[in-house]
Design brief:
The longest helix has 16 residues, at 78-93. By secondary structure, this protein is α+β, with helices and mostly antiparallel strands. It contains 5 helices and 3 strands.
């Protein structure tokens, strides 16, 4: 096996997006770049819970991370989301729906 294929990556992305808290986090981040404390301050989740969800989103390549000093700033990886949407559109185009 040569590693992870596109279908496996798409499945991981869909799993990561299957949690309401993670969708809320993505909406909070939007087009900005925020750290876990900034995100926690804007939602009802604790900072440790936010950090947990951020790691899942990062592993799925939905978020990109940039370290600045002791802080890690997160932003949405639009390439990953666009790639997923293209895969879904191809699937729909095959007539499965």
């Amino acid at each position: 096996m040569s590693g992870i294929n596109q279908n496996d990556m798409d499945i991981e992305i869909i799993k990561a997006l299957g949690d309401e808290a993670r969708i809320d986090i993505l909406n909070i981040i939007g087009k900005k770049e925020l750290n876990a404390s900034d995100i926690a301050a804007k939602c009802t989740l604790s900072r440790p819970t936010v950090s947990h969800h951020l790691q899942i989103l990062k592993r799925a390549r939905i978020l990109e991370a940039r370290k600045e000093g002791k802080e890690i700033y997160y932003s949405v990886n639009m390439h990953t989301l666009k790639s997923l949407s293209q895969t879904l559109l191809k699937f729909i185009g095959m007539g499965f729906f």
